[in-house]
Amino acid sequence: MDTKLVTRPRTLERKVQGRPVMEGAGVKIYRALTQSLQQRLDPFLMLDAFKSDDPQDYLAGFPEHPHRGFETVTYMIAGKMRHKDSAGHEGLLENGGVQWMSAASGVVHSEMPEQENGRMEGFQLWLNLPAAEKMSSPWYKDFKTVPSIITDAGVAVHVIAGESHGTKGLVEKAATQALYLDVHLPAGSEFTQAIPAGHNAFIYVYRGVVELEGSAVASEQLAILSNDTESDGIRIHSPAASRVLVFAGQPLKEPIVQYGPFVMNSQEEISQAMTDYRSGRLGKL
Questions:
Q1: Strands 242-249, 148-150: pairing kind
Q2: Dist CA 130 CA 69 (whole Å)
Q3: Burial 62-84 (b: 16+ CB within 10 A, else e)
Q4: More confident residue, 273 or 3
């Protein structure tokens, strides 16, 4: 679907400025996609960006904590992070790598830096699971590299999920049809990506500034793209060298009930998740 010509690109609906938060054992994070946007950007639940040259900002890491009902996708640009979980999985996430974890029925895991100096930078995306898959078995995989292409315009595209310009990503999700790209645009270049009209889509700029049909989006801004029934994709122009994450997905159109690290479809399911965690059953079902 991504190789066809984009003739009716989506326009900018609105720009969103994220907010700084503290997570784990006091790690500083920039939350670009907050809980208030979950219904609008279904199936995407959260997007965190972490970046620091100061080890005191990240050395404490993310000690053991639970998840249920969704997937986490961690993309590391710089630094090293060790993952361990209650399902017996363990892996080291390094520069350019991706960790994809489907918490599903539940895991307790930790994510701890394996460095004492230098830059730590990356992103963590929370992707919802359909109700039918929320209580399935957990799944985890580390990917050391990401499939990538260079377009005729000199744009480098790293395909984490979905497909772009004939290149398939690391993971394909049937229910959400998630698209996740890391796009590096040289100054004066343009990038297009076909996206079905019914999918929700947004971008997050993490270097430079880009333009969407004449509207500028600056670094650390999230831009929600309009859902025009006649649209067939997006077009991004970069007046200066920039880097942007591109997301799109088929909405699940199911109730979203979140309580901290649990995302289910009802309050009763949230209460059960809390009971399972407190009793030590979560991650061992």
A1: unpaired
A2: 8
A3: beebbbbbbbbbbbbbbbbbebe
A4: 273
